[in-house]
Structure formats: C-alpha cells, structure tokens
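#lab-general

N.A. 3:47 PM
ok so I finally got the sequence cleaned up, no stray characters, all 287 residues accounted for. can someone with queue access submit it? mine expired

B.Y. 3:52 PM
send it over

N.A. 3:53 PM
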Amino acid sequence: MLVLDAERGQLVATIPLPSSPRGLALCPGQGRLYVAGGDAGIVSVIGTASNEVLHTVKVGAAAWGLALSPDCSRLYIAGGRSDSLIVLDTASFRAEAVAVGRNPQGVALGPEGRWLASLNYASKDLSVLDAQSLRLEQTVATRSGPHSWSLSPDGRWLAVGALDSREVLLIDAQTLRVVSTYVSEAAPEGLAFRTDTELWISSLASDYVEVLHLTLQAGQQVLMPRRYTTRIKTGQGPFSIAFSRDGRWAYVSNMREGSVVKIDARSRRVVARFAVGGEPHRLVLLE
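B.Y. 4:20 PM
back already:
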C-alpha cells in the first residue's frame, strides 16, 4: 500500500501488506485504516499516524468490501465466497458471521448507520440487515450482480452499480425501493456522490469518468438522467474515486495506467497526474 501527499503526489510511505488490498475503511477518530485482504480472509489494521500495520485479523474465508459503523465500533465485511457478512468488533477483534446472499462483494451502509446491505454478486440482490440486531429486513433484486455503491451526502439516495448489465440503480434509502436506472457506457466499477444530486461513475474498461445529475420531475419524483452531463478524461482504467471533504477536488486511480489523477471538480479539469506504478486499486483520502 502506498501513502501519497495529496498536494504534491510525493510518496510518503510504503506499507507492506500480507495480501493484495481489496477494500478500505477509514476511522479518523481512531487513527485507523482497515484494509480487506480478499481471498486471504484477513483484515489489516493500519495506524494512520505511524503508517504501520498494528494488527492482522483473520476473519473468515474471504474479506472484500468494508464499511464502518458511525462510531467505528463495528467493521462490516463482505465475505465473498463464504456467502456471509462478517461483523468485526474493532475493540476486541471478535468476528461474527451472518448468512446473506451469494458471493457478497461489498457492504453499503444506510443513513446514520441504521441498516446495512450486502451486495451479493452471484445471487444478484442486496441483503438488507438491521445494523443493530443483524436481522434480515429485506432482499432487493438488482437483475445483475451488484458491485459498487455510494450514498448521497443527505442520506436520501443509494446508488448501486451492476457490472454485467452496466446499470446504476437509484434506490430510495428510506423505502429501499428502486426508483430509477441509468445505463452507463461501460461497466460501473466505482461510484461516488459529490453532492446530493451529482454522481461520478468510473469504469476499468474506459479512460474517463462519467458525471451525471439526478433530475427532479413533476410530483417531486427524482430520476436518473438518460445521459451523462459530462465525461472527464482521466487515463487508462479509472477505478476508485475519492473527494475532498469540501467536494472541490476529486482523486481517481487509473489501474491500467498506474497513476492517480487530481481533478478540479468545478472546472472538470485534470490538474495533476501522479505516477505510482502497479495497479492502484482503492483510494481513501486523509484530511
């Protein structure tokens, strides 16, 4: 794992990990970054002050997407081929597995952490659980395997990307009903809301990110547009998207190019390109 200075792109630290990182979750209050180790079934805990691995925890057969409870007391882990969602107590490092759909690749967290949803790629659905009791509340069909997600800052909308169909589903985060669908030009690998109504989409098969805006129809119904507002050329294989806290700057990892670009989110212009080598996967921004 590489730690970069976000302003100058200079390498700050290289952190050796026991397996390739597949998911990231940051808790600034704890000064910890949690890293999922894919099919190794481990989670590495990194101290953000020391840039060192503090703990390595075996959680199951696989560990993919991650999400933290609002108070960082629980880490939710997509268990992949184990067909389970794993809940890790971040104080004791005790893990509990909960059965969900088949091959969950990610975990979405609802408004204020009231519910969580496993993105079940093989069963093509979401398993929605009560975040406290971990009881199954609802199953949401997605038609194609869900892979990525983003919650709007106001907590009103959950966007879910389905790779095979190239669809991005807009889900009402209160009713958990699919209200609209957008078909991307390429498989939506990464999703990130910049504002309550502006969504960015990346695809490994392209060299750009799509920016689109939700539209308000008569009767206050919100819909996905039929076409993106703009496309921003980033480089080959854009994957992960991260925004600064104020939404002014966007950072995109280009897996096939081995770079990270910094974008002025207002002008939609790439202002810096940092060569990092390898295949930069996930991004997280420490501010």
